[in-house]
Design a protein that fits this description.
By secondary structure, this protein is an alpha/beta fold. The protein has 2 domains: 169 residues; 204 residues, Rossmann fold, CATH 3.40.50.1820. The protein has 14 helices and 10 strands. Helix 2 runs parallel beside helix 4, helix 6 crosses helix 11 and helix 8 packs across helix 9.
Length: 447
Amino acid sequence: MTATTHTALRERPAHRLRPTGYASLDYAIFLACAGAIALHVIDDSFLQPQPGTAAADHLVSGLVPLAMLALAALVFPRSRAGARAAIALPLAALGIVGGLEAVHYWREVALSGDDYTGLLAIPAGLALLGLAAVTLWRSRRLDDRCPWRYGRRALIGVAGVTVTLQLVVPLGMGYAFTHLSRAEVPPADLGAPHRDVTLETSDGLELEGWYVPSRNGAAVIAFPGRKGPQNRARMLVEHGYGVLLFDRRGEGASDGDGNAFGWGGDKDILAAIEFLERRPDVDAGRIGGIGLSVGGELMLQAAAEGAGLDAVVSDGAGTRSAAEQLDGELSGAGKWLALPFVATVTAATAVFSDSAPPAKLIDLMPRIAPRPVLLIQSTGADNETMNPSYHRAAREPKQLWRAPADKHMGAFGLARRSTSAGWSASSNARCWSFERPAPGSDPGWPV
């Protein structure tokens, strides 16, 4: 090598220097961290998948992250400093969030299965985060004037924050929404003795739950889970209804992969309906459902699909995908500014759940008729604003109850105290139906 070449290398700015290749310490650290994350992906998706699922059920959620890791390993040593940092950041998020999954289940129940490789992914993700920061620090330019230097750094900082908020964060959220579920089974407090039951879904999952037999010939599915719906269940039991509560797929003691948006959960409600249809204490045509939050969205979907529900109450329904959010919850300039974020969350959820987003609820609402539907909206909750649109799209019989509650699904406590508004279920009708309460009477809870 000539003296001229040595001089050129010395004078080349640090930010333009590339790593020395496979002998680079940075690259060795990167490979070790990426390998630890890949080990957890393989363990989670293929070696120790959730009960009731198989490796073939996770081809997309397993192979896409592995392909991303492999591509990153190939590109990293050939990239400049800024690009290397940009490559490390999303992988760091994947490792940290994957490890937090293990911490979550460790706290709720105990470590098991792929949780051990998940714990290994946490330090790998943190190391990648540190590697990105050190890479950017070492590559900063010092050979230009201060105003331009700090102006450029500010622009790079803004760009970095934007990419993190619009790409890294929603990717992490998509992973969390499909891997973090309630694991505990709470104590039963239903106001009456219950039976332990097991439901079987059409895709072969076993869902664990409780059933309180009916005293009036009607039964209600209170959904989702066995914790949140218990207060509604006690009220229903008090009025003679049979009540079925169960852990949805991927939650509590049930099989399957979880999904915070409930994608695929309509199969769980179908299994619950089939169970109630076989019960000798339940009359034909007297099966209803009350869904809370994502459970409300799933109840509406199941009813629209003709699943056998004779009446539906949806309390606190929101949106489940970018398409639904862009339809109603977002408007104006904020709609387009939020588009990259919500689209990335939906895409990440689709990849990590091996499933496509469900049909939009606003398109499904007209199909529920002629079965009655009651929509409940807490007007102070930002995530329930689509209910008026759902109500407009639905056909009769329908009702929208807008309760002046400040929190998500806050109408229940308000209804229990109020004597001037609300709806109650008629237990004497052949079909489960809604009736306005008599003036001055206790309306109870709108079921």
